[in-house]
Specification:
There is one protein chain. This protein has 22 helices and no strands. By secondary structure, the protein is mostly helical. It has 2 domains: 3-257 and 316-459, Na+/H+ antiporter like fold; 262-310, no CATH class. Helix 4 (79-110) crosses helix 7 (145-175), helix 6 runs antiparallel to helix 7 (145-175) and helix 8 packs antiparallel against helix 9 (221-235). The model is unreliable at 457-462 (pLDDT under 50).
């Protein structure tokens, strides 16, 4: 492809993505839908671009997209909201996740003839909901803040379940063995250690940020540090995505925590520079300074320099950092969903119909999951929105592409069906949101959720 045409296409894509986002804000239509449509047109329909055109960049970009979206989801997850809504959100996540796996197992085994391990793998991949679609969508819906929090929490928690579950099933499929005790122990250890690393690095970075905010052109340091945290955790043999998520949760809540200054943390409170020189922090500080500027390091440490170091407190992200990270998420989402549309194969209509059947069943059992977990005091409008907000998205797509890299004979089928479910569920969500906003009746939703809001209406005076 000509370089000029590639640059032109990139510019047009970013420009159109912003237009789609504006349309999404007004019409409550997920903007990933037109992006995937562009990919479908460029790839399977016209054949101008194929996934082979991206070479090894595709899988690498998939991993980066997963890290960014998980980190951004963590930033949105506030501890106060977590405390108030965690019980209902966890219940909804688990019930919906388990129901989805059971349905996918049945359809995958009976309709597609997948082995049981392949059907279970597909179930874990598409078991969660899409934070990339739900987080911006719930902000535009007229529902209670508590319900919005539960749906955002569900999308974040289900991403974790998708990742942990998929990686676990991939390990079983690779080794051909299932040692339940060892499996549970290694999974728990990977989860706990990755979470601990993510939280610890989040605290460390929050202290460092108090200095980096004084530096010019340091806006991209946080996204870079997230990538470092991910890679460091992966190299240690733990879950990098979990570390990225917990890093985001820490950074998103750091301002609300009472944490000590650097001086209190290392026991160097005061105004005397010689006390700093004798401390661990001081030695590190002076060693770095000697390396960066040997001439300045020979000068006596000034009192104001010591005060600046010892009085530093952990800080959260500046609004500029948040804006840049938000734009990075937007760009990752834009290019990845176009790439996803390019990767979808439409030649095998049996796999496409399997995606349709799975999506219909997933949205039906979603009603049962909502009815089982959300309290009956929830307004009926909120319960209806919770039922229709079950699209699959970025995490599922990335995991499906990762699965193909393992070389299983059913890997391509799992990926194609997962992509089909992502596309169809996004279309289905957009359609149902439109119907609900137009006050059109939804069945069997209205019948099955008829008791929701009844208790609140009974309490109101006639």
């Amino acid at each position: 492809m000509d370089v000029s045409l590639a640059i032109l296409g990139t510019g047009l894509l970013v420009f159109l993505a912003h237009l789609f986002a504006a349309a999404f804000d007004r019409a409550s239509i997920p903007d990933v839908l037109p992006l995937m449509t562009i990919g479908l047109i460029l790839g399977p329909l016209l054949g101008w671009v194929s996934k082979d055109s991206f070479g090894e960049i595709g899988p690498i970009f998939s991993t980066i997209a997963l890290v960014v979206i998980l980190f951004h989801s963590g930033l949105e997850l506030k501890l106060s909201d977590l405390k108030n809504s965690i019980f209902d959100a966890t219940g909804l996540t688990l019930v919906s996740f388990i129901f989805t796996i059971l349905v996918v197992m049945l359809v995958g085994t009976v309709w597609l003839g997948l082995p049981l391990i392949g059907s279970i793998l597909l179930g874990f991949i598409i078991g969660g909901t899409s934070a990339a679609v739900i987080i911006p969508l719930v902000g535009k819906l007229d529902i209670l803040k508590e319900t919005k929090t539960k749906l955002v929490l569900e999308s974040s928690l289900s991403d974790v379940l998708c990742i942990v579950g998929t990686l676990t099933v991939l390990e079983i499929a690779s080794t051909g063995q299932l040692d339940a005790g060892k499996l549970i122990g290694s999974t728990a250890a990977s989860f706990i250690m990755a979470a601990a690393i993510g939280v610890l690095l989040g605290f460390v970075w929050s202290y460092i940020l108090s200095f980096f905010h004084e530096l010019e052109n340091a806006i991209l340091t946080t996204p870079a540090f997230v990538c470092i945290a991910y890679s460091f955790t992966q190299l240690l043999g733990f879950s990098g995505p979990i570390a990225a998520l917990c890093f985001g949760i820490t950074m998103g809540n750091i301002r609300n925590l009472e944490l000590p200054t650097v001086g209190r943390l290392f026991g160097i409170d005061g105004d005397r520079g010689d006390k700093l020189k004798k401390s661990i922090a001081g030695r590190v500080f002076l060693a770095v300074g000697r390396f960066l500027n040997p001439a300045a390091a020979k000068e006596p440490l000034k009192t104001d320099q010591f005060k600046a170091l010892s009085s530093a407190r952990p800080t959260g992200l500046h609004w500029i950092d948040q804006a840049v990270i938000g734009e990075l998420v937007f760009l990752c989402k834009t290019f990845f969903f176009v790439y996803l549309g390019i990767c979808i194969h439409l030649q095998d209509f049996k796999q496409l119909w399997a995606g349709v059947i799975m999506t219909l069943w997933i949205y039906f059992i979603r009603i049962l999951a909502v009815k089982t977990t959300l309290p009956k005091e929830t307004p009926k409008e909120d319960a209806l929105n919770a039922c229709i907000l079950a699209p699959k998205g970025l995490a599922s797509a990335v995991l499906a592409s990762v699965t193909l890299q393992y070389g299983f004979p059913y890997g391509e089928v799992v990926q194609n069906v997962a992509y089909s479910v992502i596309l169809i569920s996004t279309i289905f969500t957009a359609f149902l949101v439109f119907l609900l906003k137009q006050k059109l009746p939804l069945e069997p939703h209205n019948f099955m959720l008829r008791k929701y809001g009844a208790a609140k209406e009974a309490e109101e005076p006639a």
